[in-house]
């Protein structure tokens, strides 16, 4: 169940979900139990004083109950992050403790579960949830057996920053101690239409934005691989060292998917790190209908994937996934003695905090875990397909409609539908500067009127030499075709006489 | 009310709180109204088509109602971040819209308020809450009129990272575009006992951990200013450029407060950025009894302060405060056209996102704002004083108690109480390596037994040449003296026969 996932095929998940048959469930439970037991055995202290022996844990009751994820019922107060700790005792002990809350948490946490694991003991359940979920995500990306590493971060920008840090560490680990001065001039590559966080990372991490080379895109907003190769060779001729390429899966404005396989070929040829920023597009990996748009993503060295975007998990919930194990830790560990004592009575490889640039982290995994349990993988797939269907509906509705003009031809790859609306007064103007200037002002005016009248809202922006256009993005599966109809009519109502 | 705050005095707050007298309230409300009106007028488009005129906003109803912060009541669903937008319409419009929810949010957000402002329009209320709260925090730090800048970040480690980035930008702005190669060898200084995030920032940002110079501390864990000065001059003699000093207000293990005034003198003398990491100690600024421990903090160029620590706000809630306005923006802005359109119909200086290294940010301000409204400044002060009283109680209880030994002499500065417990078998051993080795194992054993029996938990760690000792930290004002008594007795019960 954990082993048979082939790249780019529809995900075959071992997760328990409402759609699993009974037979599947029992197989999954056995497999998880076996694995959990193995994990635990590998860190068990045998022999010695029983009082100091590592605690034997039956993790199976954590996830072996399908949808009935067993939340502790505290009698007096909501569970706190420290209390979750007690889950790692045996079920019998847990039950006893849950009805007789320990004084463990009295010192610091008057509120609900809030912190996840710089150390396992602070929030063992959340650490385990993270590990299992990250593994599932890596399986879905297509890495064999879901092997690799990863961490949840406060958002896509930070996840992308991690990817640059890790790539740098992979090629020039001495920078960690000696600084950028220890390396030759390193250059990074990304689409001219990629998210601005790549630029922010270049500035913050000491590369400098001048050393982030922007790649040209085609009419649909996708990186042109030949442009990457020519810029890589040009940089090498200048004596610079190309180390990192970001391919975007779902650009912010056009929703474009860069051709990952072609880019991966070039990365392999020139020994560069391939990161895929699938913050926005990653959700489509859950859809057997749409995941082909990220064909080749299993060749990436790292992937950013934000469940808080297309999958509807409340912000914040972003994952950075890394194919090679150990780099995150190597890159970020500082071995703070006061947190990471090697003489703890459990396997300290569960202390994940030294992988992060943060110390205590907000619990982002719990809501995602619960949503996955509730909806199942199939549920996510349906909701994503629904959003894409709605966008396709909008596209088909306006592509030939009087007064509307698409920014690029063809059905959008993601839910981003980009279009201009031309008021009556502009429709028969000849193309030229005057028309452009007037059209540029239309979207801001209509948006302002929408906000004023409070009926709906849709964003706009210019891009390159294209004047302001609307960008409609749907990530809420509760939207309906009638909402789309309303939007189109509202634009016409407010804008036709401008 | 906003103007009369002098450095290092007890905070004189303009915040509305339950403790304000009626007279004070009316004065504060007028002052806020006046200011809000002024802010608004300065960005109002006068004349022109009324449809495109900037919306006049009466911000006063946002915070002018004391504790009755008026949450919108949506009829069908909880308010979403987009809906909060409607608050900036007039109260009458808001009311109408709230009973007839707009279709604005249908596209993306099926859940509750979750995102704060890379742009104002996404979450205007949260942006304003952030601005006002950051200003209050800067007033409490002691910067004249609360002037300056700041942002909420995902935690103290990221806030500290911001401080290093901003300092670098202040002295070598060209690094943003040209990278670290454009600068001479820069060195940073921090206490050997400071939080490891300073080290992580040095690695991540491209300085290299070798260029972070660690400062010696006294027996209480406070930086020795003379050591800073001698290391600065030594670095300069080698041709390095000292740019940044971190002073810790509340170290992680000892809870020590570095002598800020002495360090500030040296920073001024050598033209270095002074950052105060008050992630842990910042809460004490709310206490007229304890804020003297941070005497001189108003001389800092930047301050990290985590309300999610001592003030009991659920994680995550961390602020980076900057004395000089414009640096955050200058350091991090990338002017992404698709987000920050200059032709928006409101004052785009409210679009705070380009100050951050993140894009969308989790809403951390709301809970903090509500807590402040509910407790008042006096409420925070009481809860902080209570925690410090409890720690003083623990200290006085064990300082002369048989079997207990303090790690350093004198009453702790923060709530960190550091001590060894000596089982009977160790008490009469002569000092020496055998005793050290055996004592080193005591705290881990007792902690393991506590976890096993589920009664309570307290952390331990070694530090420098000091073997494992307990570190008791109290930040929950609901703890009581009897909890402390229990802890001490439990340590004795579990440990005395080891």
TrEMBL record, chains A, B:
Stated family: Belongs to the group II decarboxylase family.
Catalysis performed (reactions): L-glutamate + H(+) = 4-aminobutanoate + CO2
Cofactors demanded by this protein: pyridoxal 5'-phosphate
Modified residue annotations for N6-(pyridoxal phosphate)lysine: 309
InterPro entries: PyrdxlP-dep_de-COase, PyrdxlP-dep_Trfase, PyrdxlP-dep_Trfase_major, Pyridoxal-P_BS
Listed EC numbers: 4.1.1.15
Gene3D superfamilies: 3.90.1150.170, Type I PLP-dependent aspartate aminotransferase-like (Major domain)
Any one Gene Ontology BP term: gamma-aminobutyric acid biosynthetic process
GO MF term list: glutamate decarboxylase activity; pyridoxal phosphate binding
Subunit annotation: Homodimer.
Organism this protein belongs to: Nothobranchius furzeri (Turquoise killifish)
Keywords: Decarboxylase, Lyase, Neurotransmitter biosynthesis, Phosphoprotein, Pyridoxal phosphate
GO cellular component terms given for this protein: cytoplasm; presynaptic active zone
Signal peptide annotation: none
Function of the molecule: Catalyzes the synthesis of the inhibitory neurotransmitter gamma-aminobutyric acid (GABA) with pyridoxal 5'-phosphate as cofactor.
Taxonomic classification: Eukaryota, Metazoa, Chordata, Craniata, Vertebrata
Domain of life of the organism encoding this protein: Eukaryota
Name the UniProt record assigns to this protein: Glutamate decarboxylase 1
SUPFAM superfamilies found in the cross-reference section: PLP-dependent transferases (SSF53383)
């Amino acid at each position: 169940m954990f082993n048979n996932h082939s790249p780019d095929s529809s995900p075959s998940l071992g997760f328990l979900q409402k759609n699993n048959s009974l037979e599947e469930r029992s197989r999954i439970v056995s497999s998880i139990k076996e694995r959990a037991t193995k994990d635990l055995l590998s860190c068990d202290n045998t022999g010695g004083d029983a009082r100091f022996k590592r605690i034997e844990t039956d993790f199976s009751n954590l996830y072996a109950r399908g949808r009935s994820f067993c939340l502790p019922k505290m009698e007096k107060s909501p569970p706190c992050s420290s209390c979750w700790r007690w889950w790692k005792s045996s079920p019998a002990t847990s039950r006893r403790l849950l009805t007789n809350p320990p004084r463990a948490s009295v010192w610091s946490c008057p509120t609900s579960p809030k912190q996840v694991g710089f150390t396992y003991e602070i929030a063992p359940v959340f650490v385990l949830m993270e590990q299992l979920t990250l593994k599932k995500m890596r399986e879905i990306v297509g890495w064999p057996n879901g092997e690799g590493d990863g961490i949840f971060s406060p958002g896509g920008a930070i996840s992308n920053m991690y990817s640059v840090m890790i790539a740098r560490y992979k090629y020039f680990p001495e920078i960690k101690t000696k600084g950028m001065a220890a390396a030759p001039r390193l250059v990074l590559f990304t689409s001219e239409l990629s998210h601005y966080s790549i630029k922010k990372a270049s500035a913050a991490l000491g590369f400098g934005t001048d050393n982030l080379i922007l790649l040209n895109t085609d009419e649909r907003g996708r990186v042109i691989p030949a442009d990457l190769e020519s810029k890589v060779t040009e940089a090498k001729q200048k004596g610079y060292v190309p180390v990192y390429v970001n391919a975007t899966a779902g650009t912010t404005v056009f929703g474009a998917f860069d051709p990952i396989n072609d880019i991966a070929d070039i990365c392999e040829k020139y020994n560069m790190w391939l990161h895929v920023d699938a913050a926005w597009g990653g959700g489509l990996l859950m859809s057997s209908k749409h995941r082909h748009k990220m064909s080749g993503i299993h060749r990436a060295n790292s992937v950013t994937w934000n469940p808080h975007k297309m999958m509807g998990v409340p912000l914040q919930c972003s994952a950075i996934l890394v194919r090679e194990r150990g780099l995150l830790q190597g890159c970020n560990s500082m071995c703070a003695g006061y947190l990471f004592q090697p003489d703890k009575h459990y396997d300290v490889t569960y202390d994940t905090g030294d992988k992060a640039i943060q110390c205590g982290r907000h619990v982002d995994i719990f809501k995602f875990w619960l949503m996955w349990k509730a909806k199942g993988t199939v549920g996510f797939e349906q909701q994503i397909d629904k959003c894409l269907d709605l966008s396709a509906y909008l596209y088909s509705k306006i592509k030939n409609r009087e007064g509307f003009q698409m920014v690029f031809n063809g059905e959008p790859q993601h839910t981003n539908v980009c279009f201009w609306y031309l008021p009556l007064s502009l429709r028969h103007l000849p193309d030229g500067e005057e028309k452009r200037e007037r059209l540029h002002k239309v979207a801001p005016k209509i948006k302002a009127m929408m906000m004023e009248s409070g009926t709906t809202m849709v964003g706009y922006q210019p891009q390159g030499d294209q004047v302001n256009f609307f960008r409609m993005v749907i990530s809420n599966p509760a939207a309906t075709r009638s909402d789309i109809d309303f939007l189109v009519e509202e634009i016409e109502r407010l804008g036709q006489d401008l």
